[in-house]
Specification:
Elements: E1 2-6, H1 10-21, E2 27-32, H2 35-45, E3 49-53, H3 61-71, E4 77-81, H4 86-94, E5 99-102, H5 106-118, E6 123-124
Parallel strand pairs: 1-2, 1-3, 3-4, 4-5, 5-6
Helix pairs in contact: 1-5, 2-3
């Protein structure tokens, strides 16, 4: 499973990379720090899954997700944010995201969330108000 990480905060990106690289069936395809760069790298790298921060410099993760899905309708995108709430989760799901993980839960949930999204399932962080399917 090839994964693109779109996250502007380097320590968070490094932590996610470490979690992903410990998995024998996952690898980092590329990394991006802005929404625009994420859209470009998604097109160039065609990763299996994109981990998308919601608050990014330039276009935010919701808009980046919308743009990626316009060009790559089958793209599997897992959103990640420090912020949570039903409206935020619904916003990412409405533009084509397949899941949402709270950054404070990423250590426990990132890998299971990636596996769920890879299997075509929606994943929503356990503390969120929206139910996962």
């Amino acid at each position: 499973m090839r994964i693109l990480i779109v996250e502007d905060h380097k320590p968070t990106r490094d932590e996610m990379r470490g979690l992903i690289e410990r998995q024998t069936d996952m690898t980092i395809a590329a990394e991006a720090e802005t929404g625009e760069d994420g859209v470009d790298k998604a097109r160039l790298e065609n990763p299996d899954i994109i981990v998308m921060d919601i608050l990014l410099p330039g276009i935010n993760g919701i808009e980046a997700t919308r743009r990626i899905r316009l060009n790559q309708p089958d793209a599997k995108i897992l959103a990640l944010s420090n912020h949570f709430g039903e409206s935020l989760v619904q916003a990412i799901l409405c533009v084509g995201g397949m899941g949402y993980v709270q950054k404070m839960r990423a250590f426990e949930e990132l890998i299971p969330a990636l596996r769920s999204v890879a299997a075509g399932q929606t994943y929503v962080s356990h503390d969120s108000t929206v139910q996962k399917t």
